[in-house]
Structure prediction request, 242 residues.
Amino acid sequence: MRVAIISDIHGNLDAFRQVLNDIDASGIDAVVCLGDNVGYGPEPEQVIRQVRNRNIPCVMGNHEQAVLDRGYLDWFNPAARKSLQKTMPLLSEDSINFIRGLKSSLVIYQSRFVHGFPPDFIYTYLFQASKDTLKQTFREMKERLCFVGHTHKLKLIGFDGKVSQHIRLRKGIVNHFHKDKKYIVNVGSVGQPRDGNNNAKYVIWNTSEDSLEVRFVPYDIAAVVSKIMAAGLPKVHADRLW
Prediction:
C-alpha cells in the first residue's frame, strides 16, 4: 500500500493541485492530511473543498483551531494573525463545519498522524522537543510511526530505545524503516515550504516496502504571489514562497 501524507497547504490551491496531479500519477492508494489547510494563502475555501471532495482524512492544524476560536489568535505573530483574520470571511459554513469536525490526531494504518507533535499536540513544533522529551515521547508512543507537519521542514527522527537519530530528508526514496525502531516523520509543506527549496513537498509511505519517498513538485509561484497581493494578504507570505 502506498500512502501519501500532505501537510500545511495554507490556502495555496495552485501548489495543492499540482501535488494532487502528482499523487494521481504515482499510484497512490490513500492520502492523509496533517492540517493547516488555511492561513497565509489566497484560496482557503477552494483548498478545503478539494480535501472534502476527495474524502481525505485530516487532523486539526493550529490555523484551523484559530478559525474556530479567535482566542488562539494571540499565539500568532502579527502577519499570521492578519492573514487569519482575512481568511475567516472567505470560508463557507460547510468549510467551517468541516473544520469543526477535525480531531487533534488520527491513528490509521497502525500509525499516528498529528499536526504538531505526538500524541496530539497542535501547537508544539518538533524542534521544540528536548532529547529527554523525545525519548519519553517515543517510549510512550504505541505506534511505530508518527507523521507530523507544522514546521514546514522535512525531517526524520528514529529511535532505537536509547538514542534518537535525526536525519534530514531529501528528494527521492531516502529511507527504509527499521522494524525495531520507532520514527517521527516531518513531511514538510505543500503550500509554503521553508527548507530552502520552493517546490511543494509531500511524502509517500510504502507500507509493503516499509520505505519513505519525498516528492518535490513544482508549481506556478508567480501566480500565487499575484493572488496573495490581490487579496490584500501580508506580503511576507508571498515573499516566502520564493
In short: The chain is about 30% helix and 25% strand. The mean pLDDT is 96.
